[in-house]
Design a protein that fits this description.
This is GNAT family N-acetyltransferase. The chain is an alpha+beta fold and about 150 residues long. The protein has helices at about 15-25, 80-95, 105-110, 125-130, 130-135, and strands spanning about 5-10, 40-45, 50-60, 60-70, 100-105, 115-120, 140-145. The relative contact order is 0.17. The mean pLDDT is about 90.
Length: about 150
């Protein structure tokens, strides 16, 4: 019998920003632009305990997946995949048709979640002009993309 993980997403509020920044720093992920407009970040809890953070930027019908961090004690336990599923569902509900991302360390994880490797130069203009593409992520980062299921809402 398969167990269902009941992970909960709460949009990050003022008092949680520093914990999120600390989590990003500990994972060597950029945090310089997380408070700019067009970004939505979540704290994920499991049984009332914070287990992860992550979010996305909105650029028309394209989204840029951002800053997925799972607490070390919860890694390799399905939390990352479930968190990604929740973020994708929220984004699809907001009209995002495709998610894009850059990663230096997790391309295998994202491939298992249905993301395809692409040439960085093939990113849509609104995505390639983001802070992530223009300098926050190194040129060696893998560019990946996935079409999101339509929201039947």
């Amino acid at each position: 019998m398969e167990t269902v993980m009941m992970i909960q997403a709460t949009e990050i509020a003022a008092g949680q920003w520093q914990r999120f920044r600390d989590a990003l720093k500990s994972a060597d992920l950029p945090s310089d632009d997380i408070d700019l407009p067009g970004r939505t970040f979540f704290e994920f809890t499991l049984d009332s305990e914070t287990v992860a953070w992550g979010g996305f930027e909105t650029h028309g019908t394209d989204g840029l997946l951002r800053s997925l961090v799972v607490e070390p004690a919860y890694r390799s336990k399905g939390v990352g995949a479930e968190m990604l599923r929740v973020i994708e569902a929220i984004a699809a509900g907001q009209g995002i048709a495709r998610f894009h991302l850059l990663t230096t360390t997790a391309s295998g994880f994202f491939e298992r979640q249905g993301y395809a490797l692409n040439q960085r130069g093939s990113a849509p203009p609104l995505i390639s002009q983001t802070e992530q593409f223009r300098g926050l992520c190194p040129g060696s980062a893998c560019y990946m993309c996935k079409a999101l299921p339509l929201d039947d809402g």
